[in-house]
Amino acid sequence: PSPFDFWYYRPYRTYYVYGSPTRDPSSMGFLPSVFSYVFGDGSPNAQLTEVRVRGAAAAIREGGGAVTAEQLAPFADVGEGTTGEENYVDESFVVPIVSMLGGRPEVTEDGDIVYVFEELMQTGLGKEGMIKLMGVNNMEEYEEAMSARQSVSLPSEVSEVPYTFSSASPENKALAGLFGLANLGGVLYLSQLFSSPALQSAQLVGYVGAVRALMPFLLAYAVAFNAVPALRAAWIRRENRRIEGRNRTRRMWRAKLEGGGENVKRKLRAAKKFSQSMKSTGGKREVFDSGKDLVESQEERERQSLDQFDAKFRDKL
To answer: pTM for the complete prediction?
Structure first.
């Protein structure tokens, strides 16, 4: 996240649905454009975690409930210093997604690791889970968010969206920049006037006296108005280089999966065996309602375990 996001108030669904602007910049007035010029528009990847988890869930369902780290890696949160040039995918990067979706690691006969997601295949990612992922506060926001996402297709890999300096129109950005320079020039001119010997010794009252008393604050405001966008532009250039590096790593991981080296093929065959085993023994497993999410299913299993314990206890009496 950007350190400037603290200053940017954006009600949910205002600007981005995973990096895609949902409002025409030309509809922004001058004051919102000035605010956008100074503080930016927030992170275009604010919903990245939601997209990553949904994309991983789709890949898991497509894989029959058993996948390898190579299949989940394109949806992983890439750590700093990772280049993707290694001959293997670091399993630690996929652990958060495995945990979120209720998966568990299984060791194959060859010593490889396959991730199995029985609960996800049986229950799906329910409404409560989606609400937690989106960070919405009520059902109305949830329904509107889901409606906005109907046209957003899940990618085969997650690529972070680079930051933009401002979503304001070029004309409004130019006006905001000129406003900042004019403001700074005016404050410097007034500072020079008030620093003259004639005015320094004079007792200024009324409006002029108030302006002189506020000069330190006006100068700080004028400097900040121009300094914040300059610092933010430098931060954006650095962050976009990092984003490009992480996206490059994900593309290389995807290429390793599609290239299909012998190790990858062996792990994919093992994952397929696990998914086939899950299908063949599906009749012996507990039956879950597909309308329930993972949280509800976990609570139901706990109730069933307590009922079974009570039944066994009564049989012994």
So the answer is: 0.65
